[in-house]
Amino acid sequence: MGRLQLQLIMSTEPNPKGVEISLTREQLKQTFMNYDTNKDGKLSWDELKSAFKYLKSRFPIIRTELAFHKCDKDENGYIDYGKEMDSLVAYAEECGFTIT
Ligand SMILES: [Ca+2]
């Protein structure tokens, strides 16, 4: 899926902050880490998608795609704990998943 398509979909998402559940930054991070189901210290694409589904994202696949685009800095196909995870939490915050 191209970038423009993604932007179009994002911009037509109605009231994105109203439909998703709110968590603090710490809860959000904990949620993502809970979805590291095989406990290998990094989030795979499927693990992250499951987390966004849990967070009631309307478009978990798009969220995951954008999150990887933005946060998988070394492009190894995983969101590694540490800076990539921090960046993921920041991205999720931008999407309106937190209350603060
Ligand atoms: Ca990575």
From TrEMBL:
The protein's matches in CDD domains, at most eight in alphabetical order, are given as: EFh
Question: Keyword annotations for this protein?
Answer: Calcium
Is Calcium found in the keyword set? yes
Q: Which Gene3D superfamilies match?
A: EF-hand (1.10.238.10)
Query: GO terms for molecular function, please?
Result: calcium ion binding
Task: Tell me which Pfam families the record gives.
Answer: EF-hand_7
Q: What superkingdom does the record give? A: Eukaryota
Query: What protein is this chain from?
Result: EF-hand domain-containing protein
Q: Which organism is it from?
A: Quercus rubra
